[in-house]
Specification:
Blueprint lengths: L4 H11 L11 H25 L2 H21 L4 H13 L6 E2 L2 E2 L14
Antiparallel strand pairs: 1-2
């Protein structure tokens, strides 16, 4: 049974024949397409936020997550692993200060090490 959103996206991409090997002649084109999908979904989310009701905003935000997971899968990255590392890195910002509502890195901050992904 699939247990994470990343696994659900990966299974869908496999079924849709969208997971391309880095050795494939079409790999760079697939990455470019996926990045285009990320851009499209970002702008659809922005439009929904400014013009639509809450259910459409939620749908567009989920679509953006979906295509971002797809981009990571094409790069051969486990999105759950990467996200977990960023999650831990964000917790290392405590104690923190805020500037204009945005959390700033505190003295204990450790950047996420994603170099082995």
């Amino acid at each position: 049974m699939l247990t994470s959103n990343a696994e659900l996206v990966q299974a869908w991409m496999q079924k849709a024949d969208q997971l391309i090997s880095p050795d494939s002649d079409d790999y760079i084109e697939a990455l470019e397409k996926q990045l285009t999908y990320v851009e499209e979904e970002f702008y659809e989310l922005m439009y929904a936020f400014r013009n639509e009701k809450r259910p459409q905003i939620i749908k567009e935000a989920c679509d953006l997550i979906w295509v971002t997971y797809g981009l990571l899968h094409l790069h051969g990255v486990d999105p759950d692993d990467a996200f977990g590392r960023v999650y831990l890195s964000n917790w290392s910002k405590f104690p923190f200060t805020k500037v204009n509502g945005k959390v700033q890195k505190g003295p204990n901050y450790k950047p996420a090490d994603l170099s082995d992904l």
